[in-house]
Amino acid sequence: MASLADATPPIALGALDGRYRGAVAPLVDHLSEPALNRERVRVEVEWLIFLTTHQVVPGVRTLTDDEQQRLRQVVEDFDADAIAELAQIERETQHDVKAVEYFLKRRLTAIAPGEEDRGLAELIHFCCTSEDINNLSYALMVKGAVSEVWLPRATELVESVATMASDLREVPLLAHTHGQPATPTTMGKELAVLAHRLGRQLRRIERAEYLGKLNGATGTYGAHLAAVPDADWPSLSREFVESLGLQWNPLTTQIESHDWQAELYADLARFNRILHNLCTDVWTYISLGYFAQVRGQGTVGSSTMPHKVNPIRFENAEANLEVSNALFDVLSSTLVNSRLQRDLTDSSMQRNIGVAFGHSLLAIDNAARGLAGLDAVPSAMAADLDANWEVLGEPVQSAMRALAAQGVAGMENPYERLKELTRGRRITGDDLREFIAGLGLPDDVAKRLAELTPQTYIGVAPELVDYLD
């Protein structure tokens, strides 16, 4: 049997790099292994430029504007050839960050080839432990993935749910609490609830903090002070970290504590869970006939039953949200722990960040496609309302309670009387109106209740949609 492992080009082991590649490809620029190396190169370049422009090390010249531009261009031009070169160096060093250092030393030799400039290369990775570079790189990667890829896609999805809520704000819907017919609402209001919940999580994610540190092997600036004792290293560290668009963490061990990551991933997981709730609700509405899936798109719904259009987009989203959350949860719970001043469990764990984001992004894509393929069926919703007049037992007994509280005679035991009329059996509009007529209600109340129907008993549900604004 031919070995698939030997196929060319290589076959992806996971679905994200296989059949779903198109939906998640934008994350490759931020959360892939080459993206990590590119950010490592960026941080090393910026640290070198920072050290020389601030003249931190006495007697070292400042890099010229042209040299700085050419160094930064190494980051911008980071391509397949650079990836291959780094991989080759790493095979020799058996250390990924050290490979980046050697990679940049080669570039600096070409940019500043003079004999008098050879010492500049020693300022690449100067006083840094690998985690100084890695923590800043991961912060930049995750920040870019959130702000440039995940958040725009998630925002578009929430906006589409909000638009559906607005469009369907007046469409009456039989609610189901505990799976049983309950007080009517509108489809728009129910979608607005989900849009509101998702929107709250987006606002939390938008406010996320991305922390970074550069303080040496155990967070003490020991090597820094040994090399340049007169420099204000904490202030320089803060200025450098903030120059990258990150928030400085002043107190760490060898590693930045990753608490910000745990906080962010918890918010992302909560967004995922609410989106999962949306998918299961919409799936149920489809099964009840409240939404029709757009037909005639050439898709095969079932391999044997031609009539079927399966809600596969929502089912696919559910599965991917569950995978994403499993990863976000384990990232959140493990990254905040490190034995004493350092262990390497976080190194392996963080390499799964892209997979967690990928499954979430894929779910967002599927949910968006699924929602775009729906048409509301108000007639189906109306039919269920017409078949459940017993839900009007609530307003009748509530009106009787109010009258009893006001001292109106004959309003005793309203809940029990409506329970006897409605529980365990279906009633018609005529049954309810006959019951109302025999209660001895004041004329205005009797008229108001007799005119009520399941379709009109929706309270202020349409107006509640406006709170999305």
From TrEMBL:
Pathway: Purine metabolism; AMP biosynthesis via de novo pathway; AMP from IMP: step 2/2; Purine metabolism; IMP biosynthesis via de novo pathway; 5-amino-1-(5-phospho-D-ribosyl)imidazole-4-carboxamide from 5-amino-1-(5-phospho-D-ribosyl)imidazole-4-carboxylate: step 2/2. Residues 18-317 form the Fumarate lyase N-terminal domain. Gene3D superfamilies: Fumarase/aspartase (C-terminal domain), Fumarase/aspartase (Central domain), Fumarase/aspartase (N-terminal domain). CDD domains: PurB. GO terms for molecular function: N6-(1,2-dicarboxyethyl)AMP AMP-lyase (fumarate-forming) activity. Keywords: Lyase, Purine biosynthesis. This is Adenylosuccinate lyase. The keyword Lyase applies. It is an enzyme of class 4 (lyase). Catalyzes two reactions in de novo purine nucleotide biosynthesis. Catalyzes the breakdown of 5-aminoimidazole- (N-succinylocarboxamide) ribotide (SAICAR or 2-[5-amino-1-(5-phospho-beta-D-ribosyl)imidazole-4-carboxamido]succinate) to 5-aminoimidazole-4-carboxamide ribotide (AICAR or 5-amino-1-(5-phospho-beta-D-ribosyl)imidazole-4-carboxamide) and fumarate, and of adenylosuccinate (ADS or N(6)-(1,2-dicarboxyethyl)-AMP) to adenosine monophosphate (AMP) and fumarate.
